[in-house]
Design goal:
This protein is an alpha+beta fold. Among the domains are: 88 residues, no CATH class; 145 residues, Beta-Lactamase (2-Layer Sandwich), CATH 3.30.450; 157 residues, 2-Layer Sandwich (Heat Shock Protein 90), CATH 3.30.565. 51% of the residues lie in helices and 17% in strands. The two termini are 61 Å apart. This is HAMP domain-containing protein.
Length: 564
């Protein structure tokens, strides 16, 4: 019975199969003939039409060059003898000579690790002296030619900055091209040097045909090979890819005479395929629209209304396929069940949200209380009873506010009073090493905000910004902002060292910093609390001020007590 339903004329399966066969069978018959002839042409041209080889070979070259570049960067970073070459040899000739020997031995030893390279070199611009390895297969005349070419190349680039040597670049000596990479430290240049023709050795294994060519070219598409003369470039299909590591490209030249051998016939054949598709596809589209697209569209429209919160919507009954009838019935039943469960689920979510907020509010640093008690103890030793009374009053007010952990919102004036108590305690503790200022309009005092939002970032300044080296100033600015909808904007800024670049990157990428032992759990908790309370309506921005110091900007919906 089920099988009969699936293949009945109301079944979408039956309709899709019939429609698909009506579309595919004519095209398949045409494409079988076309593919048969096309495969014959492809088999004859497979060696020349495999264009992805260009990218594969260039990736291999780039990987080799990248390994050498890493070696050069490592040498610049960790080789101490390079620093001695940046000083005139007249200052300490013994150290300079010993550094030369060490570096020469290193080049002679390391060149065997990178067989793709011809030369590794170090040039001291201060002393006008070049150090290179000495290949065993190179004559003295060849070595002198290369060394003079390296020196000439470096002198031409003495005014270049470090970033100008970011990539490999081609350089020509006589009729030979070389690919060069340079790392600069001070006035010392460390580099690698390889013949362009040496990089092309693996391409000798490719079957490019009698007239096909593979070659390296400069950015101006000038060939870097002696045998790269091309009679007429218009006779070739050019396939190239640019190196990711250097200012050069790999170019394949494939003769059109082979590629276009049977192209006219193939073009006419494909025109027939396209014409047939243009005729059949509209008909098939109308067919699919009636049996599939319209029923799906009806369901989608109702789904959108349900997604917007209108749970009274139902899919109306139309003459449709058996499968869509079942989908409509199941969907309508599901919406009814969702509507019945919505209130229960919503109440459970509110309960969980409030529980998590309470947990986040209770995560308080105990070191603050210990430091406050220690300060009172020190004041007692000096019998400064007035300051003891002030400190005790600040601490009592602070603790009274903290124990009110059942509050979801507090007035801004209460949060500011609590924050001021905390800052007064810290000001008494650090004396002249810490000052603060709180700026805000009194008209904002009745605004409702989550408790401890301001105090959390103020506490972060105390933890990370205050040192014994220089005084720190903290400011809290509050104002009303927003054009269409009013927002409360709070900016907490200090004159300390600011956030580390690593912390800022992780914050912008929303990496969870609470699991790391870095002292940023308070910031993470604040972001979590704001999302739980406001979803996407609140905004928290962490940055460093251009003049120095950390800057935290909090943007909250402006809500007064009588509006809540």
């Amino acid at each position: 019975m089920t099988f009969i339903h699936r293949l009945s004329n109301k079944s979408i399966r039956f309709k899709l199969i019939v429609g698909f066969l009506l579309l595919v069978i004519p095209l398949q018959l045409l494409l079988i003939f076309d593919n048969y002839y096309g495969m014959k042409v492809v088999r004859e041209q497979v060696a020349n039409s495999n264009r992805h080889l260009v990218a594969l070979y260039m990736d291999q070259i780039d990987r080799n060059l990248e390994e050498i570049d890493k070696y050069l960067r490592t040498m610049v970073a960790f080789e101490n003898d390079l620093i001695k070459l940046d000083i005139s040899a007249k200052v300490n000739s013994d150290d300079y000579f010993l550094a030369k020997i060490n570096l020469f031995n290193k080049l002679e030893r390391d060149i065997h690790t990178y067989k793709e390279m011809d030369y590794l070199f170090i040039y001291s611009s201060v002393n006008k002296e070049l150090i290179t390895n000495q290949p065993s297969d190179a004559t003295m005349e060849q070595l002198k030619t290369i060394q003079s070419g390296i020196i000439r190349m470096l002198r031409e680039r003495e005014d270049f900055q470090k970033q100008d040597f970011a990539k490999w670049f081609p350089y020509q000596i006589n009729e030979e091209y070389y690919i060069v990479k340079i790392q600069k430290i001070g006035d010392v240049y460390v580099g690698a040097w390889v013949k362009a023709s040496k990089l092309m050795i693996p391409f000798g294994l490719l079957d490019m045909g009698p007239e096909g060519k593979s070659l390296l070219v400069t950015e101006n598409l000038k060939p870097m090979s002696d045998n790269a003369a091309i009679a007429n470039k218009n006779d070739y299909l050019e396939v190239s890819t640019h190196s990711k590591q250097g200012n050069f490209s790999l170019l394949f030249l494939i003769p059109y005479s082979v590629i276009l051998e049977h192209l006219p016939f193939l073009q006419r054949l494909w025109y027939l395929v396209i014409l047939g598709a243009l005729i059949i596809l509209p008909i098939f589209y109308i067919f699919l629209r009636h049996i599939i697209l319209l029923p799906i569209n009806r369901i989608v429209e109702v789904m959108r209304r349900v997604r917007d919160g209108n749970l009274d919507q139902r899919v109306k009954q139309y003459p449709v396929s058996f499968e869509f009838e079942l989908m409509n019935d199941v969907f309508n039943s599901m919406v009814s069940e969702i509507k019945a469960l919505k209130i229960t689920v919503y109440e459970e979510q509110l309960f969980i949200q409030k529980a998590e907020l309470k947990y986040l509010q209770l995560q308080i640093n105990p070191h603050f209380f210990l430091n406050a008690l220690n300060t009172i103890y020190n004041l007692a030793q000096f019998q400064n009873y007035q300051l003891i009374q002030d400190m005790s009053e600040y601490l009592i007010n602070y603790m009274r506010f903290m124990f009110q952990n059942n509050l979801e919102f507090v007035k801004l004036e209460d949060e500011i009073a609590h924050t001021r108590n905390y800052l007064q305690i810290q000001a008494m503790r650090f004396q002249d090493g810490f000052t603060y200022q709180i700026n805000g309009d009194d008209s904002l005092s009745q605004a409702l905000i989550p408790p401890l939002i301001i105090q959390t970032f103020v506490e972060n300044t105390i933890k990370h910004a205050i040192t014994m080296e220089e005084p720190i100033r903290l400011t809290v600015d509050m104002e009303l902002c927003g054009e269409q909808e009013p927002y409360l904007c709070i900016v907490i800024q200090d004159t300390g060292r600011g956030f580390s670049e690593e912390a800022l990157v992780k914050w912008q990428s929303e990496v969870d910093l609470a699991d790391e032992n870095n002292g940023y759990i308070g910031i993470w908790n604040s972001r979590r609390r704001l999302r739980l309370i406001y979803q996407s309506r609140a905004q928290l921005t962490i940055s460093n001020h251009p003049d120095g110091g950390a800057r935290v900007a909090v943007r909250l919906p402006f809500v007064l007590k009588n509006e809540n």
